[in-house]
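Dear colleagues,

As part of the handover before I leave the project, I'm documenting each prediction I ran so the next person doesn't have to rerun anything. This entry is a single chain, and its sequence is reproduced below.
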Amino acid sequence: MESLKGHFLIASPHLLDPNFIRTVVLLVHHSEEGAFGVVLNRPTDNTIKELWERVGETPCEVEGRVHLGGPVSGPLMAVHSDASLAEMEIVPGVYFAAQRDHLEGLLKKQGHEFRFFVGHSGWGSGQLENELKQGAWFTAPASSELVFSSEEDMWRKLTHQIGRNLLAEMLKLDYLPADPSLN
């Protein structure tokens, strides 16, 4: 089994689980024991500042939205771009943190991109592989540009890109123009 760590799981249009309809999940970990990731495109109505005032011990001026990482509860987590405040690297330039001192450091530093998450997405041994076989998810390699891009139309952009790639592969084309009328 090849690890999908550092890949996106893009919900198939046929995936009807309300926790994952039109979601893009960044896989933080994937092994034979299971998989763990966070939904990138589910911002909540809560700000990081509001949440930090309840759980943190230091002041916070960050107004960004907290994201719902998935249906499984757990500690507050962040995906970010600061290697010095990371427990692991997910893909080049994208890091994961859940330790309190790392999260506090992210809130104090300027100039780094980050997303905070409550909850996460988890799969037991073989569960994700079964969902992939059933066609519930598309996969694509993650990149820092896409991880930190606007969540507003992330799912649409990635499904469109996957469809274009599949079409080009099926038609055995080296290049497929963005506008087919230009052919």
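The chain is about 25% helix and 30% strand. Residues 97 and 103 are 7 Å apart (CA to CA).

All the best with the project,
I.
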